[in-house]
């Protein structure tokens, strides 16, 4: 699974995993119910290895997430409560776990150190949302259109003055999500990676099981 895919998820997560905020006007902290959102993004115009569509599954409370995209060899699971990321390699019927890097998480989530400014309202994917300008610091910021239940329907993120990345919801479902959505399949094998190696660094064939998984 490419690291760039995880980076793209950051744009969508803006507004879905807020920490305790100060007494100020701010968006909803986290999604209040299970939700599945299909997004389209313009990221591929600047990074050809990034998908231009993706599906995000979020559990109520925003602590667990699953991200998948057409053409990718697997999908990513994130569990903030357990501080872990699971990269599932569907074709190999394997998965691996890596720690959730707190320094990266700090850049993906909003908190009470950031400034929020209302910019109006809009309708995206048939749902009403409030447009917020978010400033992390002088070099990092963006906007997000967030529904009253905490679901991000449109987002724009820029870093260091570079070209922004946009994502827009095209479909939203509030069907209840079973725990299995946020876990690797029980019959998949766990791959222990050498220290310092990530799934995107593995050469072709590395980690393929010697015998078929049952």
Automatic annotation (TrEMBL):
It comes from Limobrevibacterium gyesilva. Keywords: Signal. The keyword Signal applies. Residues 47-139 form the DUF4412 domain. Residues 1-22 form the signal peptide. The lineage of its organism: Bacteria, Pseudomonadati, Pseudomonadota, Alphaproteobacteria, Acetobacterales. InterPro entries: DUF4412. Residues 195-214 are annotated as: Disordered. This is DUF4412 domain-containing protein.
